[in-house]
Amino acid sequence: MGRFPFLSMNKFSSNVVEKCLRVADQYQRLQIVNELINGPDFSNLLVNPFGNYVVQSAIKTTSGGMRQLVIKRVMGMSSMIKGDMYGRRVLACAKLLR
Fold first, then answer.
1. Pumilio repeat positions in this chain (predicted)?
2. Which domain holds residue 46?
3. CA-CA distance, 90 to 18, in Å (whole number)?
4. Which secondary-structure segment (H or E) carries 39?
């Protein structure tokens, strides 16, 4: 805990964060996602070659209000990230699962 945004932007540890999102119980998943979306590096995650996959995993593994919160945060940054190829991937995922 406390390092998920940093780990999400690394080639190998981003895979570990994605796995954590898949296998964690709901409470742990909410903690991880809260750390990701409320951290100062969230905009960097969206355009990072590895972080964008973590954000997509966060969207796919959450449900209900938490999923809507992640999607809202992504859509709030859409004007900033739509010009980036990694950002467009996250936007497409968010729009698909809206």
1. 1-34, 35-72
2. 4-96
3. 14
4. none
User: Per the confidence metrics, is the pTM higher than 0.85?
Assistant: yes
Q: pLDDT by residue (tens digit) across 38-65?
A: 999 999 999 999 999 999 999 999 999 9
CA angle 34, 62, 71 (to 5 degrees): 70
Q: What angle do CA 75, 39, 28 make, to 5 degrees?
A: 95
Q: Which of 75, 61, 72 shows the shortest CA–CA distance to 33?
A: 61
Structure tokens at 69: 């919160």
- Cα atoms found within 13 Å of the Cα of residue 60, Cβ hemisphere only: 16
C-beta neighbour count of 80 within 10 angstroms: 12
Q: Give the CA-trace dihedral at 43, 44, 46, 49, to 10 degrees.
A: 170
- Count of H helices and E strands in the chain? 8, 0
